[in-house]
Structures are given as C-alpha cells and as structure tokens.
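ARCHIVE ENTRY
Sequence with per-residue tokens
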Amino acid sequence: MEAHVRLPRWLARVNRVVTNRVMGLWAPYLPPWAVVVHRGRSSGRQYRTVLWAFVRKRTVVIALTYGHTDWLSNLEAADGGRIIRCGRTYVLKNPRVVTANDATALPVGTRWTTRVFGSAFVADLQ
C-alpha cells in the first residue's frame, strides 16, 4: 500500500488561528487560494476556511492535506456550501470525497491531489 502525505494536526490549528486570518485577505482573489464558507454542524455559526482549490470547468478539487476536517464534515452535513475564488462566489453542490483508488473520477490536472494526499474533496460549482 502506498503511503500518503498528511500534514500534522498542530499545523492545522496554527493555520486556523494565525495564518488563515492573514491569508484570508488575499485568498478570495488570488488562485489557487480560495475561501470555503460553511456553517457549523452544531453551532450554526458561519466559518471561512482558506484552502487551495483547483478548478477545472465546473468542478472544484481540494486536496485533503489534513485528512477529514471540520470544514469537510460541515459541507457534507449541509450537502454543500459556498466558495469564493478569483473574487467570485460559487455554490458547492454534490460534495464528495474521492480517494486515490478513484482518482480517474477527477478532472485531468487534479488527480495528483489523491496520489499525494490520499483523498480530495470534490464538488460541482454553480
């Protein structure tokens, strides 16, 4: 079995508290950065998470660098959310996780995300 890269959880916490606040200023406008807007499953609070998002036609692919995360759980529970990329807001529909075993389901040019990290978040843009 092939080993996949997983970034440490402590780095996710640092990014959430420090880095995302700074990067959130330019992430909605500067690809491949994007901001995923989602609602907390329990709190109902709106969150904004800075991520790398790769868009091919009407599909967005986000490498799951930390594995399964809160933002992913929130999008799955709500059956979608929104993403801000290149200054435009899109609705995320049909959210799903694609594993390395199913990488051919991803658009060409984004399949590396599952080879390196083992899985990727995929959604249709509307």
About this structure: The helical segments are 9-23, 70-78, 112-117. Residues 46 and 105 are 30 Å apart (CA to CA).
